[in-house]
């Protein structure tokens, strides 16, 4: 993907964000930091693509059976936790959407274990094969590789096998059955390398248009890493289909490594206290923007924030 594509913030989103920010803070300062945060975000996107950060996360399995025990064996156990909420929404959307494909996106979904586990259920597998359902997982700077290893494993299964020796992702090694399960089902999931701006601008490699079209949008331990949670949340609102459901895990922003970020044009942005405060504030702005964009909280799941886009 071209490095130029991800840099632009659409005017409609900018307007909505600045309007909301002006209710909470001094608009000119917010706008100037918004520009700076966007530049830092783009620098991080470039860095991630050049250095392949996508596999380096501590929590990277995308397994949402239990928020606090992320490293489960993907092949074992029936669907539970968030997976069951997804299936409830999938069933609703498959009924409601008729011939139009239903779309589930796990934003920053790592290795996509829950996505695979849901996609492998016969009813959803058939819908994917009939092109009535797209189950997608986005990551930044990471696309699973098609080339097989010596044992014939590709993509995520290859990564699991390679990492199993180092015992990084799981205290217990993945079993042969886990590797087989992932090898057999990973192609049901579409992996997308995308920043939030690319998702909104439809310049990601997603197989269907995403704007107004995502029926289930989920994030866990992902939004917290962006520099632009306000843009991300406004984007999420713009991506949801009418009636679409959004699951948010984010509570506050994660820290940044280092005190300065080098931009592509040679300038350096200092990550000081003020920058961090503004980034934290931008999460609040993004969260309060959601209802203004028609995406309202529901009480479906205690612990995870759940929203639905009103039609
Ligand atoms: C800690 S992992 C979480 C993985 C998975 N959701 C889980 O809980 O197991 C963070 C995820 O967010 C993605 N990510 C981090 N920063 C991002 C950014 N600025 N834009 C888009 N995705 C980002 C990473 O590629 C990764 O998939």
Low-confidence stretches: 1-6
Structural class: alpha/beta
Number of helices: 10
Order of helices and strands: HHHEHHEHHEHEHEEEHEE
| Residue-averaged pLDDT | 89
* CATH class division: Alpha Beta
Cα-to-Cα separation, first versus last residue: 33 Å
Number of domains: 1
Q: How large is the share of residues in beta strands?
A: 15-25%
The CATH architecture designation is: 3-Layer(aba) Sandwich
Principal-axis shape equals globular
Specify Rg, calculated over alpha carbons. Answer: 19 Å
Instruction: Please report the total strand number as a whole number.
Output: 9
Bound molecules: S-adenosylmethionine
User: In percent, how helical is the residue content?
Assistant: 40-55%
Tell me what you see in this structure:
Helices cover 41% and strands 15% of the residues. It has a single domain, classed as 3-Layer(aba) Sandwich (Rossmann fold). The protein has 311 residues and is of the alpha/beta class. The radius of gyration is 19 Å and the shape is globular. Helix 9 (229-239) links the parallel strand 4 and strand 5. It has helices spanning 11-24, 27-51, 82-97, 113-119, 122-129, 155-164, 176-185, 196-200, 229-239, 273-292, and strands at 102-107, 133-139, 189-193, 214-219, 240-248, 260-262, 268-270, 295-298, 305-309. S-adenosylmethionine (SAM) is lined by residues 41, 44, 54, 57, 59-62, 70, 108-110, 139-140, 142, 195-196, 220-222, 225-226.
